Input
Amino acid sequence: MTAAPHTAMHANAIEARGLVKEFDGFRAVDGVDISIPAGSIYGILGPNGAGKTSMLRTLLGIIDPDDGTRHLLGSDKPISKSHLVGYLPEERGLYQSMRAVDTIAFMGALRGLPLKEGARKGRELLEDAGLGKAADKQIRQLSKGMAQTVQLMGTIVHDPQLIVLDEPFSGLDALNQAKLEKMIRAQAEKGVTVLFSTHVIAHAERLCERIAIIAHGRISFDGLVSDARDRLRPQVHLETENRDGPWRSALPRETEAEGNWWHFTLPESGVEPLLTALVEGKAGVRSLSIERPGLHDAFVAIAGEAVAAEMARDNAAGEGKLP
Amino acid sequence: MKEIIRASYVIGRRDFTAIIFSKAFIFFLLGPLFPLIVGIAAGALGGQVARDSAAPVIGLAMSAEDTQAIMTARDALSQQLGKGRFPDMKVLAVSVGPEPLDPRALLQDKRSGLAAVYSGSLSAPVITGTQGSIRRWQGEMALLTGYANSNGAMTLPDIERDIVQKSSSDAKQIRVLTGQAAQTLLFMLTMLLAGMVLSNLVEEKSNKIIEILAAAIPIDAVFIGKLFAMLAMAVVGICVWFAAGFAGAMALGGGMPSMPEPAVGWPIFFILAVIYFTMAYLMLGSLFLGIGAQAATVREVQTLSMPTTMMQLVIFFFAMYTVTKIGQPIEQVASIFPFSSPFAMIARAAQVETLWHHGVAIVGQGLFALLILRISVWLFRRNVMKSGKKVKKDTSEARKLFGLFPVGR
Output
């Protein structure tokens, strides 16, 4: 990855310890510790209402925490670094009577980019996205997807060092979701830290190196996606010709049988002793597959069945149009 | 600080251009015409109603000679004192058949339309009527009777007129009027603009733009930018109104009317009016922004801002009440209390020459405006931008009357 196009780099783009935010006695953020390495694509996973948005708002300095510390790009006053940050809130909002190019320029100006420069870059971004003709149209004249794209461009027009996207995929069709994924990867390749929240695990699985799983305002896991997966042993799916024999003793006790199929977690000893026992015990192996757990399985294991079910409901009810 | 100024400028510039190029600005410019039109229409209507309503009539129940003498006196004195000075009169018979006329019974007869009845004789007249009618017409009838009794010998002297442009009494009265007019103008403009800034914020909250702003720049800058954008728009509006007024006066050929100078002189008075308007607007605007920041819906905004508007109206009346009480404790209270201070002080500028009072008041008002702004920002950052599901701690709290008293589950 190349270096970020900005000033001093920090090991962690965001770092928070013991972050707490209460609303009317309800803890939306409950003692969050999180470190987001600079230059990474980082996903915050959790069902709706888990506290993702409140956490992001607190980290960005939109709201102040009731307790705990936070550092954004090395500063404990996040708003002072806003010129290095791009933020796409979950609730999208634009001035309806403003032209698309002016909207991008205005959003850049908010973060210190001169208006003329913002307008020039805005036109470039719109051209690159194939929306050049929409540049001089008012937001109200654009489709919802186009308006969201304009807002996204306003988020990155000032070449931020950190991009924070709250549920960026919601409301987008599959095509635009793919475009957004591409944009996120492109930004990461430039060395920009991308932090996004989602309740669609597939996005996080495709994009993120690191994730945090949040539920009820608390972080249950914070680390590499591979680490999350490694918390679960691979699953073995075995089909044999014979249903019984001395080889059966090589299968773990919690093995699930389904006709001639056997499903179990790969033993700690690995696959070789198992294979030896199957061959020597004349099990008649028809097929054997070892499946590495997906992020969803890891999520279920880490966040719990209830949270996973909640998230599945959110997906079904909402926007998860990509598998 | 530099960042706040920069960010305020970005917000202010956006809001200012958005307002200036909107249709709403046309209505804002036309705004003063509406009360003017309504005032003229109401005045014309009121005048018509007054003309159409029956003028008071006094019934004359005296002997024929006395009646004639009163009518002659009325005609003679009307020429000198003006026609409207005396009521219309209706000659009544002294008696109805053998019975003498009963003025009380006559006044109770709805068909008579009489305000009072004047009976007896020129040497012993009696006026019968309600207390109000008697108080109103007793003096006039006495004057007519006195003139009638003198058989035309009584004359009113011809007084030589020595006219001056103004007297101290006139100047004082007009300065009070100038103060009141300035107060009213300040109040109307302030309320109008504060209302507009509130609508603007609510619109941004409902558009979800506020989060983008809050994430990018300090909320102080958002509020300051909005306040000053609206102020700049008001300045444009005032310039247009003055230009239109001046052009209108010139077109009508009258030129600018000459008015007695306020105590501090016109130039300083204008400067103070602009400063006090700015201060009143900044205080009320900041307060309204704080309210707007707390409210989630337009309905909530209306509910929350209504008591504030009412309170401001009371404060305005309070300041108006003290206009004629310069230097008295109540006027000093009005001058010190931040929300009434701009109105009380502009009235003071119209009547008192001292200037240092204004310096102190302006500094105080500025600091108070800043304090309200800071509180509004603090409340915004503390209470706004809640999101996600809210888990109720106790189901008994599910419904509360006025948000305070549990009323069951």
About this structure: The first strand of chain B starts at residue 57 and ends at 61. The interface with chain A takes residues 3, 6-7, 10, 14, 18, 22, 204, 207-218, 381-382, 384-391, 393 of chain B (CB under 8 Å). Confidence is low (pLDDT under 50) at residues 388-396 of chain B. Residues 2-32+169-385 of chain B form one domain.
